[in-house]
Design brief:
single chain, alpha/beta, 2 domains, 5-stranded parallel beta sheet, 12% strand, ATP-binding protein, ATP-binding, ATP binding, nucleotide-binding, AAA+_ATPase
Length: 243
């Protein structure tokens, strides 16, 4: 009977329950009541499905780093508010449709923090996608040529969090400027955006170009944004010196 039950669990794709029941059958030291066994099997299936969901969300996000909030360094010289970062871990900023803008010099850990917040959002069941800004614009230009632009823009709009990394390394041309405006307009008041840049926010206006559009983009980005301005020397340089 147990063999038949296990086979039925596999056919029904109750993999967490299957593994838990197999473990319970092989364990001679733990005696479950009927109620305890049912609760154990259901909890195991729930945990398994949640873990697989997180894995799917994390894989789909395509993060640059495998980053976790617990590994963020809060050295005083870095000017990172630990309480602020810990508040981001609850992901309430997503529910409030707020943005996060991260600035700092090369190697100071902007991308890592952005990725860590994104990973945390995935762990809580939010849909996240990560892009290097230049690669995103290149992809969207290609999609205009092959007819998939609307599909790509709609996909971006559906993401609970869009992480846009390395923004401002190159000034925006007219097409990129229009695409960024469309992305930000679609997400404004509906979804959260995390942007990381080497440039201070005050310099973004010049990078975007065309005053009217730059004003519109920054008004939508900055108005509901939390800011992280990282100071200090390059973390990559520190790690090289230690090794």
């Amino acid at each position: 009977m147990n063999t038949q039950t296990l086979e039925q669990m596999k056919e029904l794709r109750l993999y967490g329950m299957y593994r838990a029941f197999t473990s319970a059958l092989s364990s001679q030291s733990i005696a479950y009541t009927n109620d305890e066994l049912i609760a154990y099997l259901l909890q195991s299936e729930w945990d398994d499905r949640q873990n697989r969901k997180i894995e799917r969300l994390t894989k789909a996000a395509k993060f640059r780093y495998k980053a976790v909030m617990e590994d963020i360094a809060f050295d005083a010289a870095r000017n990172i508010d630990k309480n602020q970062i810990q508040r981001f871990a609850s992901c309430q900023f997503i529910d409030k449709k707020e943005n996060i803008l991260i600035t700092g010099s090369t190697g100071t850990g902007k991308s890592y923090i952005a990725s860590a917040i994104g990973h945390q959002a995935c762990s809580l069941g939010y849909k996240v996608t990560y892009f290097n800004a230049n690669k995103l614009f290149t992809m969207l230009k290609t999609s205009k040529a092959d007819g998939s632009y609307i599909k790509q823009i709609n996909k971006l709009e559906r993401q609970d969090v869009l992480v846009l990394d390395d923004f401002g390394l190159k000034g925006l041309d007219h097409i990129n400027r229009q695409m960024l405006m469309e992305i930000i307009e679609d997400r404004h008041g509906k979804r959260s955006t995390i942007m990381a840049s080497q440039l201070p926010i005050e310099a973004w206006h010049q990078t975007i170009g065309e005053q009217t559009i730059a004003d519109a983009i920054l008004d939508r980005l900055v108005h509901t944004a939390h800011r992280i301005d990282i100071k200090g020397e390059s973390m990559r340089k520190k790690l090289r010196n230690k090794s």
